């Protein structure tokens, strides 16, 4: 133990230090305030804080009024009185005092309240110290924090505005973003102006608020004495930091905007690919000057606006080109077709998250055909761009040409598919082609990957007609599947055929069948007139603001009171295709009824069926079945079956148990007259039936 004691370090003589030296070393003075006697004792360091000599102070707190301004003294009295009343043990505050030379400095005081056993305050013991540097540090910290916060807020607004600008597709979209509450107004700007460079001049495209427009500035020259013109001319921003500077540099503009109370302004050039495309001006009513950081952020903002603006201008140019191309490719007028009413509508797609329209490859067409027939086409080329519109135009033309040449619907579709496959494009197209005989109501429909048609009856009820289809155009040729089944339907007088693209049917969150059900109900409850119904359907499409184009074609056959048209119906029948035979019989039955010969329907259908069967059994290749209504002294119905064989049919005698050889006998018995005609490399076997007298 003695060794340890001997080895312990020696301590200084004045250790531990007394409170007074500790306070003095930390430049703190102490005081003792006797509340009963009213005496306020201060030590020498406290005198130094208050800049008082000992002989200048009589020990009373009132005598400190020469150093403590009245407002500060009152404030401190309130703080001390409150602490005494509410039972606090201590208090503390910063206050200002006036030194001997008249300068104001900050001080800090803290007091401990001593109370008797009843809780009554008797004394306050405390410290006082100079706090000027501390307050300066606090103020500097607060100012720096405020600057940092302002910079963060400014940067955040620029980031938000830039993110919003990334989705702007048109010039109006860009302007809307800048005026939006998430955009530039949060930068504190009270007024915004924007101009675009056009043909060596600046055209004002945005200004606000409403009373900020300066007459004569809608179109200005780049060389005129305006800040926006200077920014464009020099490719550098113009920062105006005070009203005086604004008035001196641009007196002509200043006199027209004094009512806006502008205190500062920033005019930023909008530069894209090293050339000016415009300028934007931000005018402030509560800003005085721009720091280096402010200028950098605003210049960066100008760069983001310029990029978005250039994208928007290019998009609008492409959209104008695409719209012009599409309008040129779609039919300029729809022909008037005797025997029916037609209405067509087209609506370009709305782009999600944007205000605007896109362009695509949807199309429609109406093709008048000989013999009181009409072709109706609806289609959709893959994609939403000028290429889709161009392909659409070419497809529309070839489909019209193939139909006008007299090819049956299946051949029209197959040839169109081959054409698209051989075209220098990677696009495919869906299509539906319907050919209606308005005299008989026979409707032949072929479908290439497109949605089914709908039929509305004269009483308003509507049904979805399921039609067997083939591959989309372009793909069927690629995969060698050019067969397009033909569906034969009946379009009775007063009935309406509706063809549309999937933009009218598809809705977010629903499948195609549900969309068809909704569309069917909408048509059922819609107006009777095809034009009014088309308007109603396209209005619904507009309300949905879908992401796909909508093309719509309505064809309504005239009612029973309308003048009757006469013509022919025709269908190709392939060997080994029972569906084709069934459809041909269906076509014949509908035509016979439509031409007022329902009483002879069985005989006519039986003869036509026998002629078709003979052609398929005794020749090679397909047969073409045609039914005509001939007018003159008598109204006659003529059934023709054409094949590629030049061998004439021979009547054969059939035994009692024979199952063949009775065909021509049956034809001869049931028909009023029949015969055979050579036709090129083949022949036509025909039979006629008298179905009335005169052309009634």
Unreliable parts: 351-357
What spatial form do the alpha-carbon principal axes imply? Answer: elongated
Query: What is the CA-atom radius of gyration, in angstroms?
Result: 48 Å
User: Into which percent range does the helicity of residues fall?
Assistant: 25-40%
Number of helices: 18
The biggest sheet amounts to: 6 strands, antiparallel
Tell me the β content: 25-35%
Distance between the termini: 145 Å
Question: What does it look like?
Answer:
With 696 residues, the protein is α+β, with helices and mostly antiparallel strands. Helix content is 35%, strand content 28%. The protein is built from 18 helices and 26 strands. The strands form five sheets. A six-stranded antiparallel sheet has the order 8-7-6-11-10-9, with helices on both faces. It has a five-stranded antiparallel sheet with strand order 2-1-5-4-3, sandwiched between helices. The chain has a five-stranded antiparallel sheet with strand order 12-21-20-17-18, with helices on one face. Strand 23 and strand 24 form a beta hairpin. Helix 5 packs parallel to helix 10, helix 8 packs across helix 9 and helix 11 runs antiparallel to helix 12. The longest helix is centred in the middle third of the chain and has 38 residues. The relative contact order is 0.06.
Key features of this structure:
elongated, alpha+beta, 696 residues, 26 strands, 5-stranded antiparallel β-sheet, 6-stranded antiparallel β-sheet
């Amino acid at each position: 133990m003695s060794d340890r004691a001997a080895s312990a370090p020696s301590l200084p003589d004045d250790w531990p230090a007394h409170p007074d030296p500790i306070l003095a070393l930390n430049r703190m003075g102490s005081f003792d305030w006797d509340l009963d006697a009213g005496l306020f004792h201060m030590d020498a360091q406290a005198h130094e804080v208050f800049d008082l000599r000992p002989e200048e102070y009589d020990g009373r707190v009132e005598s400190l009024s020469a150093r403590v301004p009245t407002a500060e003294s009152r404030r401190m009295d309130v703080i001390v009185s409150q602490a005494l009343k509410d039972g606090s043990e201590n208090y503390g505050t910063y206050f200002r005092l006036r030194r001997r030379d008249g300068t104001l400095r900050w001080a800090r005081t803290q007091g401990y309240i001593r109370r008797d056993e009843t809780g009554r305050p008797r004394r306050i013991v405390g410290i006082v110290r100079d706090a000027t540097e501390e307050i300066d540090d606090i103020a500097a910290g607060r100012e720096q924090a405020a600057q940092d916060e302002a910079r963060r807020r400014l940067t955040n607004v620029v980031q938000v505005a830039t993110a919003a600008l990334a989705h702007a597709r048109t010039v109006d979209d860009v302007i809307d973003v800048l005026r939006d509450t998430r955009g530039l107004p949060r930068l504190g700007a009270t007024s915004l102006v924007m101009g675009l460079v056009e043909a060596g001049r600046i055209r004002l495209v945005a200004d606000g608020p409403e009373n900020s427009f300066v007459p004569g500035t809608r179109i200005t020259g780049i060389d005129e004495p305006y800040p926006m013109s200077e920014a464009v001319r020099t490719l550098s921003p113009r920062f105006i930091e005070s009203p005086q500077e604004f008035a001196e540099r641009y007196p002509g503009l200043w006199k027209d905007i004094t009512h806006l109370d502008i205190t500062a302004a920033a005019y930023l050039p909008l530069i894209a690919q090293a050339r000016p495309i415009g300028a934007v001006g931000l005018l402030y009513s509560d800003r005085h000057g721009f720091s280096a950081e402010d200028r950098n952020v605003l210049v960066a903002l100008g760069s983001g606006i310029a990029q978005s603006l250039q994208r928007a201008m290019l998009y609008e140019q492409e959209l104008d080109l695409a719209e012009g191309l599409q309008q040129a490719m779609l039919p300029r007028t729809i022909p008037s077709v005797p025997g029916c009413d037609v209405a067509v509508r087209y609506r370009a797609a709305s782009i999600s998250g944007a205000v605007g329209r896109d362009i695509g490859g949807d199309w429609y067409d109406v093709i008048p055909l000989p013999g009181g027939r009409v072709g109706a086409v609806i289609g959709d080329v893959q994609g939403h761009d000028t290429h889709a519109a161009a392909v659409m135009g070419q497809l529309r033309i070839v489909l019209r040409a193939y139909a006008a040449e007299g090819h049956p619907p299946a051949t029209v579709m197959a040839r169109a598919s081959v054409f698209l496959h051989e075209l220098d494009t990677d696009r495919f197209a869906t299509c539906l082609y319907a050919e209606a005989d308005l005299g008989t109501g026979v409707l032949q429909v072929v479908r290439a990957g497109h949605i089914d048609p709908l039929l509305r009856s004269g009483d308003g009820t509507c049904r979805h007609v399921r039609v067997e289809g083939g591959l989309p155009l372009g793909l069927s040729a690629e995969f060698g599947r050019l067969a397009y089944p033909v569906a034969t339907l009946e379009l009775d007088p007063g009935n309406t055929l509706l063809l549309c693209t999937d933009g009218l049917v598809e809705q977010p969150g629903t499948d195609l069948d549900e969309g068809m059900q909704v569309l069917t109900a909408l048509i059922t409850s819609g107006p009777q007139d095809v034009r009014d119904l088309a308007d109603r359907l396209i209005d619904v499409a507009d309300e949905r603001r879908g992401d796909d184009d909508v093309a719509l074609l309505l064809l309504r056959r005239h009612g029973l009171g309308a003048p009757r048209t006469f013509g022919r119906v025709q269908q190709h029948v392939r060997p080994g295709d029972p569906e084709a035979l069934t459809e041909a019989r269906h076509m014949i039955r509908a035509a016979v009824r439509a031409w007022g010969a329902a009483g002879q329907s069985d005989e006519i259908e039986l003869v036509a069926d026998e002629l078709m069967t003979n052609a398929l059994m005794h020749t090679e290749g397909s047969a073409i079945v045609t039914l005509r209504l001939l007018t003159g002294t008598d109204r006659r119905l003529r059934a023709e079956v054409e094949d590629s064989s030049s061998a004439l049919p021979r009547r054969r005698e059939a035994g009692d148990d024979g199952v063949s050889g009775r065909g021509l006998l049956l034809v001869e018995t049931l028909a009023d007259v029949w015969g055979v005609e050579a036709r090129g490399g083949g022949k036509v076997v025909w039979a006629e039936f008298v179905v009335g007298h005169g052309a009634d």
